[in-house]
Amino acid sequence: MRNTIVSRRSVVRAGLGVSLAASMPVRSLLAAPMTADFPLRAEPGRAALAGKAYPQTTVWSYNGQVPGPEIRVRQGERLKFTVENRLDEETTVHSHGLRLPNAMDGVPHLTQKPIAPGETFTYEFDVPDAGTYWYHPHTNSAEQIGRGLSGPMIVEEREPIEVDRDITWVLDDWRLLSNAAISDDFGNRMDAGMAGRLGNTVTINGQMPDSFEVRAGERIRLRLINTANARIFGLDFGAHRPRIIAYDGQPVEPHGPANGLVVLGPAMRIDLIIDMANESGQSFTVVDRFYPSQTYRLIDIVYSDKPALRARPPVFSIRLLANTMPEPDIARAKRHEVAFGGGMMGGGMMGGGMMGRMMGGGKMWTINGVAFEGPVMEPLLTLEQGRSHVLTLRNETAWYHPIHLHGHSFRVISRNGRQTPYREWQDTVLIAPRENADIAFVADNPGDWMFHCHIAEHLAAGMMGIVRVS
């Protein structure tokens, strides 16, 4: 049975007949770990984002590809990669979600000198936690990420769960013109003051494939990574029943997604287990339903005509082993209030000169009443190293904000005063308009760390601060 929802993912309709399975090989959990220096070139390139019916798109890429090459190592190993900047502007690389030394965090002026055109910088650190992560620049990030600079980073477990295939989907969206060129309207004030830079073309691993081929009876681990500047995904897998086994790389009690939608804000990752329990020859559509007025078909899951791999789902465990974060002592934790303000359509937030700042090119978003002017400011918070802390995050705006803390993972312990059912570890928490969320963690990683909204346009327009751990 084929779902008949019409695709609205692009104004440059691709009409591809390409099977995604052909472009995403089986990823072996037994692959040799990467221990040598891994070369990473930030450089201009070209990619067929809109399909063969349209010209290739000029992009900024890592090693000539979009997304960049998958960096895959094993938990506990030492990761080393050298970045060569072949762009005409400065750049850096941030390993998003990894708990690493402050000097390796990739934040210009705060943790390192930016990598100038023609220069290189080597990042080297031990990887304590398994999981799904990604890498991207933190210099002019709204444009650099928006032009294609990002890539997946996978840390394999010491004792991986058993699956038939381990697949990564890097989800991204692009604002393309009718000739498939990327629109140059970066820094658009309406984007900055509202939902961010939403595109008109959605890709999976840099393509617009029509189908992903599976075999009846197989079990797939699907790693979803949202690298879009601003788009929030809410994926409905239809007849399939995905189980979430990790948020932002961190294990969680396996469970089905709330309301049947797998929701990822920008920079978030979710690992799913999906048992392909339907019959050979069938086809089912994955639909993005996050924005009710913009529902669209993402891709079809197509069952091959091969005999079923097994008659019923396997019985082996899908629970991942815990990572190495220290457990916060919530009863004795020091508590902090953090309020996010600003933007358009924010009621009182439009007063006090907000419209003037909108029209005059000033900052539009604040944390605790302060807009980040940078490149470095005094810390928003100073946290005692080794102590547990609870941050109450208050979204006082009319817009969603995926809030990211560098160098740490935290437990999301409550939303609007109600305890979360899974107390999930995350590094990027999506907070709805007017919602409050409490996060808890041990501040065990010393240094000055970025703390910001990961809608890139909101970050650039002031929603960023520095958290000092000392």
The gross shape turns out to be globular
Helix-and-strand structural type: mainly beta
The number of strands is 31
Give the fraction of residues assigned to helices: under 10%
What's the number of domains? 2
Identify the CATH homologous superfamily of the largest domain.
Answer: Cupredoxins -  blue copper proteins
State the separation between the terminal residues, measured CA to CA: 58 Å
Could you list the spans in which at least 5 consecutive residues all have pLDDT below 50? 1-34, 347-360
Summarize the biggest pleated sheet: 7 strands, mixed
Instruction: Tell me the strand percentage band.
Output: 35-45%
The CATH class of the largest domain turns out to be Mainly Beta
Arithmetic mean of pLDDT:
90
Q: Classify the fold: give the CATH topology of the largest domain.
A: Immunoglobulin-like
Rg calc? 21 Å
Structure description:
By secondary structure, this protein is mostly beta strands. It folds into two domains: 20-303, Immunoglobulin-like; 330-469, Immunoglobulin-like. It has five helices and 31 strands. Strands 20, 21, 23, 25, 26, 27 and 29 form a seven-stranded mixed beta sheet that branches. Strands 10-9-12-17-14-15 form a six-stranded mixed beta sheet, with no helix packed on it. A hairpin with a 7-residue loop joins strand 18 (283-288) and strand 19. The longest helix is centred in the C-terminal third of the chain and has 7 residues, at 354-360. The N and C termini lie far apart (58 Å). Residues 1-34 and 347-360 have low confidence and may be disordered.
